[in-house]
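Practice problem 4.
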């Protein structure tokens, strides 16, 4: 009966692939098989000194850094991230997190990670949007990797993405005051994976790493769903 009901719902309200707008089959979750096959993966995790790691060299100590997908204008990645960020499509985040874990969780330093944190939004921004798009990526990752996450250990004091506040932000640039560790005891002595949605300059992540490494025994790796550099 339940199955019949869900089949009927699917008939009248089909789920569409956020990548190409094809109707999703029952066994396809989040995105269709064609789009899943077409994802522009970077495979950066295979290379020491990849472009993501180089963003942090000489700035903050990290164990490793990578991005799952290339982000180009008009690309499949851009459509997925847009749906995740602005259209409440958190299942895309979970899908991307799972994809990420399947590629890296058993790999080199990522296999030593024992806790995953999202890059937090400023609380005001999160209230406006209703959710932090990084949280679903984190949950998807941890579901596959079988490790715990903490969504509220790290908090953001300043919204560095708001252009109008630029002059105020510049004073804080590259310092740890942008982020605060709310629960130091939770992250103490942990090997942490910090997850973001899209990496552009890396400066936000740099600030977050700066805040985290002040806590005793903390090591940090970085992974993002997408990267907007070449
Ligand atoms: Zn598709």
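Answer key:
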């Amino acid at each position: 009966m339940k199955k019949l009901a869900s089949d009927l719902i699917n008939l009248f309200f089909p789920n569409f692939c956020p990548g190409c707008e094809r109707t999703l089959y029952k066994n396809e979750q989040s995105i269709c098989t064609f789009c899943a096959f077409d994802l522009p993966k970077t495979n950066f995790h295979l290379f020491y000194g990849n472009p993501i790691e180089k963003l942090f060299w000489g700035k903050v100590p990290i164990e490793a850094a990578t991005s799952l997908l290339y982000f180009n204008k008009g690309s499949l990645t851009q459509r997925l991230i847009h749906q995740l960020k602005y259209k409440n499509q958190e299942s895309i985040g979970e899908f991307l997190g799972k994809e990420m874990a399947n590629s890296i969780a058993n790999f080199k330093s990522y296999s030593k990670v024992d806790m995953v944190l999202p890059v937090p939004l400023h609380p005001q921004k999160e209230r406006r949007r209703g959710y932090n798009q990084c949280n679903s990526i984190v949950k998807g990752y941890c579901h596959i990797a079988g490790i715990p996450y903490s969504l509220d250990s790290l908090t953001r004091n300043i919204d560095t993405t708001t252009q109008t506040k630029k002059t105020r932000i510049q004073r804080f640039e590259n310092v740890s005051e942008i982020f605060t560790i709310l629960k130091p005891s939770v992250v103490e002595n942990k090997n942490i994976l910090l997850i973001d949605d899209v990496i552009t300059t890396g400066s936000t992540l740099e600030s977050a790493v700066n805040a985290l490494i002040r806590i005793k025994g903390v090591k940090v790796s970085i992974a993002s769903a997408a990267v907007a550099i070449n």
